[in-house]
Automatic annotation (TrEMBL):
<keyword id="KW-0050">Antiport</keyword>
<feature type="transmembrane region" description="Helical">
    <location>
        <begin position="258"/>
        <end position="279"/>
    </location>
</feature>
<dbReference type="Pfam" id="PF04515">
    <property type="entry name" value="Choline_transpo"/>
</dbReference>
<dbReference type="GO" id="GO:0015871">
    <property type="term" value="P:choline transport"/>
</dbReference>
<feature type="transmembrane region" description="Helical">
    <location>
        <begin position="448"/>
        <end position="470"/>
    </location>
</feature>
<dbReference type="GO" id="GO:0016324">
    <property type="term" value="C:apical plasma membrane"/>
</dbReference>
<comment type="function">
    <text>Choline transporter.</text>
</comment>
<keyword id="KW-0813">Transport</keyword>
<keyword id="KW-0325">Glycoprotein</keyword>
<dbReference type="InterPro" id="IPR007603">
    <property type="entry name" value="Choline_transptr-like"/>
</dbReference>
<feature type="transmembrane region" description="Helical">
    <location>
        <begin position="549"/>
        <end position="569"/>
    </location>
</feature>
<feature type="transmembrane region" description="Helical">
    <location>
        <begin position="589"/>
        <end position="610"/>
    </location>
</feature>
<feature type="transmembrane region" description="Helical">
    <location>
        <begin position="510"/>
        <end position="529"/>
    </location>
</feature>
<feature type="transmembrane region" description="Helical">
    <location>
        <begin position="25"/>
        <end position="48"/>
    </location>
</feature>
<feature type="transmembrane region" description="Helical">
    <location>
        <begin position="304"/>
        <end position="329"/>
    </location>
</feature>
<keyword id="KW-0472">Membrane</keyword>
<feature type="transmembrane region" description="Helical">
    <location>
        <begin position="400"/>
        <end position="427"/>
    </location>
</feature>
Length: 656
């Protein structure tokens, strides 16, 4: 390598790693404050929340049903009662008949009804009707009617769909077949990696086969429409005769329908042919960039596994959001006071006003002069700053969650972009590729560009918050809307959906420019957008060619692994020498669905890395074309294949 080029390589390396400073510091500080506040909200939610609200029902005393001594007699009813029905404290006396003590009073948790068994209908626990007290009745029913109601409710649930039993069978299937499910996912991973690596050699043939295949499908559609159009030449059926109908088959009997299809397909086919003729050079550039991306993956295999890091970070964000939301939603403990059930007793004056108590530790012996003293549930605690702002804290939880998720995705984009950029700007590949480029790029992003990544994530989060509000309002007032308001709401939702897609596009390319040059978010977004707009045709061609190729790749991986899983788990493929039997599975389609879904996630993860590589190398290629001219001072860094397509070459340095 000559001295000038060597110097230039050092300058490029400096751009990638040394000549940087922290960007968008204000947004970085704001993001850190939001994270700190998010941690505080999580701690407060953990202190005040109780997820048992979700797992167990509460009775009218505010205590959890079925926990400890608080067992209840439970049956299924169509709706909750509108009145409180309780047993008088006198019902616990020996020989007392509970049916004689049903009253509409305050609920009292402090008595024990001896002989009463806990019957759980929903829990699936077995019960013996003989354990039910014969003198116990429900409001408005006698003893026989009460027993019949319980039996009918239990019989309906037993004979119906038992989701617990189905879940156990599915779990049993997973326990029997998990090794083969893992084997199917490993096959999907291997096929995805090999497909991406082989694109280095097969991309030209594969892309041209796909393009010709699309044209062939269009040509077949034209022929078929023409054939149907001619076969209906004697038909007198028109749209005037048919009118409006929901039966689509009727319209297919109209000759003009096939004429319309024929005209549309012919126009589309002509546009595709003209695009193929006039854009063939740009298609060749797209193919060369795809090949170069495959070559880069071959030199930096670690990039293929970075989606695991993103997945783990997203899992942490989702788990923290879900747990925090659960604890916030279950905040507010039951509030109890000591109440004298018989106010005529003179000794009850010892009970102080607003005296609180704990029903689990309360004992009437604490008030010997007032035997009717009871620890009574009043309401749920809604006092205090925390309880009054639960709704605001839930909004904060959603906002911080979306910001963190978008930041994690932005960090992944910037890390991969920096890795692929370090490959492109290495003059002699692979000799000039940095050591551990993925780790270096990850550390650069965290050290210098947290503020810029948080800035882009914040913009996207605000748009997503607006979309959530619109969806909420649309759902809330859907029945009250007239056609005009529904149209306005539909337009707003559509506009913000498009705005979100546009911001994602801008952010993605801004992160690439941040990874290359280390500028702040606004400058990087402006430079990326201007660069792409100056090469809009190349952008469209590369985008569509890459989408077509990756769609075919996903179809190949998911479809191939899914078909293999179907033949294996349905018993059509025998595996000699193994103890696995498909006949032992309760639902053989569950492992198939698991393998197909897992294969899609694996293929999507690998192909997302590849797509990011194509976008990064494309922006680097455009920068290379605009900033360099092939001279010894400004040599091209593109591959020889790209220089050949564009009729470019690096000029040798003058000697002497």
């Amino acid at each position: 390598m000559n001295y000038d080029v060597e110097c230039f390589c050092k300058v490029r390396a400096c751009v990638l790693c040394v000549c940087r400073s922290c960007t968008d510091i204000i947004c970085c500080v704001l993001f850190m404050l939001v994270i700190a506040g998010y941690i505080v909200v999580g701690i407060l939610a953990w202190l005040y929340g109780d997820p048992r609200h979700v797992l167990y029902p509460r009775n009218s005393t505010g205590m959890f049903c079925g926990i400890g001594q608080n067992n209840v007699f439970a049956v299924c009813v169509k709706s909750c009662p509108s009145e409180f029905w309780i047993l008088s404290p006198l019902a616990h006396l020996p020989g007392a008949n509970p049916a004689n003590y049903f009253k509409q009073e305050y609920c009292v948790p402090s008595f024990q009804l001896q002989g009463t068994q806990y019957v759980s209908v929903l829990g699936g626990n077995a019960y013996n009707p003989s354990n039910i007290p014969t003198n116990f009745t429900l409001p408005g029913l006698d003893a026989n009617q009460t027993l019949a109601a319980i039996r009918n409710a239990t019989s309906d649930l037993t004979n119906g769909f038992n989701i617990k039993e189905v879940g156990l069978r599915i779990f049993e299937d997973f326990a029997k077949s998990w090794q083969w499910i893992v084997a199917g996912l490993v096959i999907a991973m291997v096929v995805s990696v090999f497909f991406l690596l082989l694109l280095r050699f097969t991309a030209p043939v594969l892309i041209w086969v796909l393009i010709i295949g699309v044209l062939a499908v269009g040509a077949f559609g034209i022929w078929y429409c023409y054939n149907e159009y001619m076969s209906l030449s004697n038909s007198a059926l028109t749209y005037n005769n048919v009118g409006f109908t929901t039966n689509v088959q009727v319209y297919l009997q109209v000759r003009d329908t096939w004429l319309a299809f024929l005209i549309i397909l012919s126009i589309v086919e002509a546009v595709l042919l003209l695009a193929l003729i006039f854009l063939r050079t740009r298609i060749l550039i797209a193919i060369a960039l795809i090949q170069e991306t495959s070559k880069a993956l071959g030199h930096m295999m670690s990039t293929l596994f970075y989606p695991i890091v993103t997945f783990v970070l997203l899992l942490v964000c989702v788990s923290y959001w879900g747990i925090t939301a659960l604890y916030l939603a279950t905040s507010g403990a039951p509030f109890y006071k000591v109440v004298a059930m018989n106010t005529s007793q003179s000794g009850c004056s010892v009970i102080r006003a607003n005296e609180t108590c704990d029903p689990e530790t309360f004992n009437t012996t604490q008030y010997p002069t007032c035997p009717s003293a009871r620890c009574v549930f009043i309401n749920y605690n809604t006092e205090g700053l925390f309880q009054r702002n639960l709704f605001n804290l839930q909004i904060y939880n959603v906002f911080a969650f979306l910001w963190c998720v978008n930041f994690v995705i932005a960090l992944g984009h910037c890390t991969l972009a920096g890795t692929f950029a370090s490959y492109y700007w290495a003059f002699s590949k692979p000799a000039d590729i940095p050591t551990f480029p993925l780790i270096q790029s990850f550390m650069r992003a965290l050290r210098y560009h947290v503020g810029s990544l948080a800035f882009g994530a914040l913009i996207l989060t605000l748009v997503q918050i607006v979309r959530i509000i619109l969806e909420y309002l649309d759902h809330k007032f859907k029945e009250a809307q007239n056609p005009c308001t529904r149209f306005i709401m539909c337009c707003l939702k559509c506009c913000f959906y498009c705005l979100e897609k546009f911001i994602k596009f801008i952010n993605r390319n801004a992160y690439i420019m941040i990874a290359i040059y280390g500028k702040n978010f606004c400058v990087s977004a402006k430079n990326a957008f201007s660069l792409l707009m100056r090469n809009i045709i190349r952008v469209v061609v590369l985008d569509k060619v890459t989408d077509l190729l990756l769609f075919f790749g996903k179809l190949l991986v998911v479809g191939g692994v899914g078909v293999l899983a179907f033949f294996f788990f349905s018993g059509r493929i025998q595996t000699p020498g193994t103890t696995f039997e498909t006949a032992a599975l309760n639902y053989y389609w569950m492992p198939i669905i698991t393998v197909v879904f897992g294969a899609y996630l694996i293929a999507h993860g690998f192909f997302s890395v590849y797509n990011m590589g194509v976008d990064t190398l494309f922006l680097c290629f455009l920068e290379d074309l605009e900033r360099n001219d092939g001279s010894p001072q400004k040599p091209y860094f593109m591959s020889k294949n790209l220089m050949k397509i564009l009729n470019k070459k690096n000029k040798p340095a003058k000697t002497g």
